[in-house]
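Running this now, will post back.
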Amino acid sequence: MKKLILFTILGLSLLFGGSAIACTSFIISGKYTVDGKPILFKNRDTGTMDNALHLFTDGKYKYMGLVDAVEKRWNKSVWGGYNEKGFAIINTAAYTNNVGDTTKLKGQDGVVMKKALMVCASVEDFQHFLDTLSCPMGVNSNYGVIDAYGGAAYFETGNYKYIKVDVNDPVVAPRGIVVRTNHSMSGDLSVGFGYNRYDNAIRILNNAWVENKLSAEYLLQAIPRSLYHPRTKTDLTVNIPAKKDVADFRFFIDYIPRVSTASSFMFVGAKDEEHVDNMMMWTILGFPLTSVAIPAWLSSDELPKAAELNMDDYRAPVCNAALDFKAECFPITIDKGTNYINLSAVLNKEGTGYWQLLKPIENEIFDKTEELISKLDEKYSKKEIIEFNAWVDSYLDASYKAQFNVDLLSE
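Update: finished.
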């Protein structure tokens, strides 16, 4: 079986090029997306469920990023972000870069990303940045990076060395797509994690490439919300439960969304250095099946309040709601109960599952965002983004009140 799994992964790697044990990520070169803009994505799994966005001005460059919404450490690490120069970075824990290494220094992966956002303007800068770090670096990550100059790469990085994987190299990525989960392709493929999620992400991206659907909107719904398991060929969207109020538990291990998924986020990069102000970030906070994607632009110097770290309680409103909804999806708290999802709370034939109710809300945000992006591509307007942020907050507040009787932002 192990040989079969490795063969599948290596075969798919040739086709495309390439904190908890579950993050899933990908990079798509702007040469292949529907709008010519590169895409960088991460589905984040961690033990810290409270996530939020924050704007930082403590470096050479202004940047925004996803942080742990925890009072004593929110500003110590960034788990994905982009800066005013159009440089963006994410990571996935690799688990295969330091095999046999007994170095005690660990856990610096998020610290490295924060520091990189502060000083790096390009993929080339990031490579130089890694070269200047003292070893051991205290990391075991696949770092994914894009920039406003067409650069796109993964750096499979351990304590003492890194391997660069260029997404623009047609030999490495003939379709401009590279996926990384919780193993590095340069490492020992008999260890590591995320092989099932890797295969599923490749499957979805392959189909999207064939159907010309390599867009932010399509992939944000197709990948972090995928309920297909590539090993068992199980699709939880088939034969869904009849009613929400009758629990229907399904085994829920090795899907892309997991009980440990705390957020999903995507950077839609700049076409070139002249359009850096148009670069933006989509963020799904809390749990992908009980939350919505929210757009944000660094160039507006503000964030939608629904996704922003509130400095009074160190939480983000939409994340709070998503985690409350998620509790209904995983109500069993004994005997490994979180291995089982109550699918009735997510999808049911009555159409009252959380994702069924949230998807139309998200679709409206997608539609309005697409209209704004079309305007911004013609002529950048900070004022329009600020007005749009206010609309997003108002719309989400009203929608959550109407659908769930939740006061998201209301006093």
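The domain at 2-404 is CATH 3.60.60.10 (Penicillin V Acylase; Chain A). More later if anyone needs it.
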